[in-house]
Amino acid sequence: MSQNSSTQSHSTTTGLAALLRYAATQHGVISAAEAANFEVTRAQLRSGTRRGDWLTPHSGVLISAAAPATWMQRCMVATQRSGGLISHRAAARLHGLDGFHGAESGTRGGGGRGGRGGDGEAGLVELTVPDSRFRATGEFLIHRTCVLDPEDCTVTSGIAVTSIARTLVDLGAVVSDDRVEQALDDAIRRGYSLRWITETLNRVDRPGPSGCASLRRVLARPDRQGPIPDSMFERSMERMAVAGGMPQPERQFRVYDGLGFAHGGLGTLVAQLDAAWPAAKLGVEAHSARWHDGNRRGRADQRRDNRLAGLGWELLYLSWWDLQHPETFQSDLAAAYALRC
């Protein structure tokens, strides 16, 4: 073999290796244009496709056959093919917002590489494209917009996606107000600015179908004042209590023992209750499996409850079942409140 042939072969091998490393950062997905940046020719890609090294779900989009098939990979294929952004429910899932956690599918599925490849919302690939770009396809759920500014765009897990704020604005077009609120609460708990979210809402709002009206309704709910609950379960618990005739409780209420000089003379912190009516020394805790399962947590809850009882407090517990069948709990809560007032 001549020196020139050897050098060319080494260059080709190096370029392909670099391309594969790059594809691995994008869930195994590349475009033909990106391949050219690594000096890998279309002829080389065609040869690799014939060998089974690359899959071609769409023209100009390739997937490394070595990469596992995942929902994120389908999202990457969608953005590479359309030039758009993952949005709405799929964006909420990418950002990990509360209420939008789908299960990964390890199969390539009957819909093919790049299709939905999952059941219902869990496998949904949803994206937004500028007004007239990209022809509709049955493989992805497409939204079109005339407002998609640079500040609406970000990258999560290597995938182009709408920002947290834009995602919250869009969500109401496809889910209920309560699910929008669940995601909004989660974003605020993480430290995202409500002002940023509101400014995005005002900038994006236009006549016509969108999620803007839903987010405005959520922001205008009268019981959104005060601390953000730790979960949507707690917010639902609070609303259930009020619907049963109780006064509005104080959220995330702290109970101190009154002993010593800690906390400005309030003493030692005994508990932070999900909801409380301090004048009646009555509290409610949302006992979801997510937060309260496990022996260690159970023992800690018992010690806390004993200390609260010593301070004259009564604590009721609400389960998911109670939330779905509220009448008995509402009656018990009202009776306890009446006895202590």
TrEMBL record:
Bias (Gly residues): 107-121
Region (Disordered): 101-121
Protein name per the record: Unannotated protein
Originating species: freshwater metagenome
